[in-house]
C-alpha cells in the first residue's frame, strides 16, 4: 500500500511539474523562405520574454543582424525583424540576452526560427520563451547558424505551417532589451 501511495505521489509530481514547461530536443532545420503571417483580428496583445543564450564556443560577439519568429498551432505569430543592436555588443560569447516582446496572444509556442545575416557568425545555445498565458518553452540550437537562412524548429505536427508562402502584411511587434 505504501509503494502504491509513493508511486501515485511520484506520478502526480512528474505530471504537474512537466506541464509547467516544455523542452524541444529535436534538431533545428532550415526553411527555404519566410513571409510573416497577417495579424489575426481577435488575437489581442500579449507580452513575451525571450531569453537567448549564446554558446561559449561562439565568436566573441557578433555584429550580424538577428531576426526571430515564433508562433502557435493556431496561426498566431510574433516576428521581430532585428533583435540585435550592433552598438551594444549583444550576443556575446557565454552571455544571455533578454527581450520583452509584445505581439498577438497565442497558445503554447510550437515553432521558432532565427535568421542571421552578416559575416561574423553566431552560435546560439538555446532560446527560451515564456509569457503570462503560455507554458515556457526552450529550443536548443548549439550550432553555428548559416548565413541568410531561417533556421529552427517546427513541432506543431504539421498543423501550422511556419513557411507560409502567401502574401501577407508583416505583424507589428515591439521589442525592448532588458
- Overall pLDDT, averaged? 78
Class from secondary-structure proportions: mainly beta
Most strands sheet: 6 strands, mixed
**Low-confidence runs:** 2-21, 159-178
Please give the order of strands in the largest beta sheet.
1-9-8-3-6-11
Order of helices and strands: HEEEEEEEEEEE
**Residue share in β-strands:** 35-45%
Number of helices: 1
Tell me, briefly, the overall form.
globular
Number of DSSP strands? Answer: 11
Q: Please give the radius of gyration in angstroms.
A: 18 Å
Approximate helicity band: under 10%
The N- to C-terminal Cα distance equals: 51 Å
Map the helices and strands.
Blueprint: H1 2-18, E1 21-24, E2 29-31, E3 45-54, E4 65-71, E5 77-80, E6 96-104, E7 111-117, E8 124-131, E9 134-140, E10 150-154, E11 174-177
What does this structure look like?
The chain is mainly beta and 178 residues long. The chain is 10% helix and 38% strand. It is built from one helix and eleven strands; from the N terminus they run αβββββββββββ. The protein has one helix at residues 2-18; strands at residues 21-24, 29-31, 45-54, 65-71, 77-80, 96-104, 111-117, 124-131, 134-140, 150-154, 174-177. The strands form two sheets. A six-stranded mixed sheet has the order 1-9-8-3-6-11, with no helix packed on it. Strand 4 and strand 5 form a beta hairpin. The termini are far apart. Mean pLDDT is 78; it is low at 2-21 and 159-178.
Amino acid at each position: 500500500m505504501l509503494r502504491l501511495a509513493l508511486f501515485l505521489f511520484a506520478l502526480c509530481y512528474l505530471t504537474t511539474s512537466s506541464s509547467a514547461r516544455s523542452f524541444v530536443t529535436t534538431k533545428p532545420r532550415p526553411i527555404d523562405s519566410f513571409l510573416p503571417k497577417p495579424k489575426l483580428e481577435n488575437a489581442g496583445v500579449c507580452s513575451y520574454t525571450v531569453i537567448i543564450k549564446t554558446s561559449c564556443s561562439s565568436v566573441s560577439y557578433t555584429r550580424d543582424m538577428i531576426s526571430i519568429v515564433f508562433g502557435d498551432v493556431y496561426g498566431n505569430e510574433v516576428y521581430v525583424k532585428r533583435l540585435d543592436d550592433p552598438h551594444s555588443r549583444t550576443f556575446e560569447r557565454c552571455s544571455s540576452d533578454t527581450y520583452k516582446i509584445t505581439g498577438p496572444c497565442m497558445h503554447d509556442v510550437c515553432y521558432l526560427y532565427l535568421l542571421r545575416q552578416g559575416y561574423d557568425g553566431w552560435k546560439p545555445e538555446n532560446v527560451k520563451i515564456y509569457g503570462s498565458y503560455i507554458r515556457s518553452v526552450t529550443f536548443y540550437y548549439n550550432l553555428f547558424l548559416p548565413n541568410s537562412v531561417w533556421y529552427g524548429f517546427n513541432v506543431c505536427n504539421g498543423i501550422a505551417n511556419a513557411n507560409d508562402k502567401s502574401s501577407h502584411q508583416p505583424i507589428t511587434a515591439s521589442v525592448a532589451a532588458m
